[in-house]
């Protein structure tokens, strides 16, 4: 039983192993290549008996299994296959149509390609011909130079072309002169020479037209060379490095070779003369900007630098005589142009720039050997123009200073302000320096400003002297002369105009006199200022002195005269306010109001005069008193006044007494005795004569040096007495002669007698005169 079991187990075990082996063989058959299947199948038969039957069974089972899977897959994809076939049937027509189009396109491309191919073959053939022709020409040029007339159009081979034509004409053509083409060449050679001349001349004309474009570049180079701004650049760089002169050289050489040099020289010189005239013609607005002048000078310098180079680089194209002739012509034109245009300049900075340009221009051309003395002489005229523009500019400066001045003493609050003033103006006064702050300096703020501006003018004037190659003495003389013009003409005129302005009153005039006194004192410091600049001692022979003293003295005298005039005008204004009642019976017993106001005005005005020099204040006071006395006298003798009463005379006398009291009160110190009162002596004696009625004494002592009424003129007494008489005759009421008493009749007879005697004296005086 155990054996059976064991056998059964063993049979079962063998069966399992067989199945496993068959499974392996099937997998190997399925996975290996067909060529390797033989060995695998052979192993089936090598196994146990009947094993191949079991393997076949296993194989059939595996095949059936795969058939079932294939069937399932076909069933699954059958519908998609059907749909795809349907779609393919649908696009069959489009595919056939597309095939027709592609065939047609291919046919047309083939047709077009045949034409392109033909053209390409033609291009290849033409290029081969072109290459062969170029090679032929090249070989011919090397073998027969005479057969290359096209070289004449190459500007770099003018000379070689001419030499070739000469060789052909003299050597080659005679050897083969029997050939017709040689005769043609011989006839062509003169035309070729003319063509070369024309081409070279055209090239020269282009050069002449373009040379002006190089003016700025040439001028810059020329300045650097002759002002040593770049060391030894002159040895390294030449004008030829900046401008291509080869057209001139070629044209000159060609005309020389062709035996026509004189024609070329005449043409070149004629054209350069024309260009010189164009270069020397300025623009109409050249005087407006410095660039206008700079461009003008640059063109001229460029022109003559080119001529100088041609002079030295060629043999006889231009001569020194020709360039000197051009320069003299140009110099005359330049001077005339600069005179005209500089006269239009009103800006001193522009005139100064013009001077600098003239100096650079002259120095540059002088370096090339051109005489420039006339240009430096012209600078003296330009200097005068520069001074004129400076004077006009400073006239405006002075005018602004005077307009902004307050004409009051300068207040200084502390030491710093004091030093700030004295640093700008040389002021020294021991008395003022001792005063405590705050204090006032006698001059107004315009004084240090004027002084500073005069120094600025000197600096500005000095700028013109730079680079003029003048000695210190000449510069010193120029500075002093220009400063004198500033003081005696510009500043003096400004002061005179200032003094005459209506808004300048007595206070301002007094301050102007004080200011001019201090400016006059400062003139010696201006002398020292110029001396420090030029290092020329003022003791040097022929040194010009500053005329500031006379300028300020004249201004001061004008201001004094204006003070006298304005005082008299003010007195006249008060006199016009007088309103006497000439027929009054008695006086008011007090002076007239207008006169008291006038005296108060004069008293306050003369107090302001304390800062003036003593003689000025005294003269002003005496002038005012005389004018007042004259005005009062004219009031009495006015022809419009027909009658006057004794009461009016008494009232008038009270006013004169106030004038005399004012004169005796010494309103201005310095008068001796009753000098000021003598201004009213004519009025006093006339009024006393009428008040006392002392006609007998007057008539008896008339003409005697000791006469009590020596200052009373008979004509004056007669004129006043006739007014007195006329009043008596025409009065009918409220008149001192209204009642004819005996004494009045006697007095009337006396008046008539006195009138007759006075007329006799007046007639005697007129006959004597």
Account of the 3D structure:
It contains 27 helices and 2 strands. The protein is 75% helix and 1% strand. The radius of gyration is 64 Å and the shape is elongated. With 769 residues, it is mostly helical.
State Rg: 64 Å
Largest sheet: 2 strands, antiparallel
Indicate the low-confidence ranges by residue numbers.
142-155, 226-233, 726-740
Mean pLDDT: 81
Strand order of the largest sheet: 1-2
Distance between the termini: 212 Å
> Approximately what portion of the residues adopt beta-strand conformation?
under 5%
| Proportion of helical residues | over 70%
Order of helices and strands: HHHHHHHHHHHHHHEHHEHHHHHHHHHHH
Number of helices: 27
Q: In terms of structural class, how would the helical and strand content be classed?
A: mainly alpha
Shape verdict: elongated
Summed up, what is this model?
With 769 residues, this protein is an all-alpha fold.
Write the layout of secondary structure elements.
Elements: H1 2-31, H2 37-45, H3 51-143, H4 158-175, H5 180-210, H6 215-226, H7 233-236, H8 239-242, H9 246-257, H10 261-279, H11 290-313, H12 320-342, H13 348-367, H14 373-404, E1 410-412, H15 415-424, H16 430-434, E2 439-441, H17 446-465, H18 472-500, H19 506-534, H20 548-576, H21 593-608, H22 614-637, H23 646-664, H24 681-692, H25 695-701, H26 714-730, H27 742-768
Antiparallel strand pairs: 1-2
Helix pairs in contact: 1-2, 1-3, 4-5, 5-9, 6-11, 9-10, 11-13, 12-14, 13-14, 14-17, 14-18, 17-18, 17-19, 18-19, 18-20, 19-20, 20-21, 20-22, 21-23, 23-24, 26-27
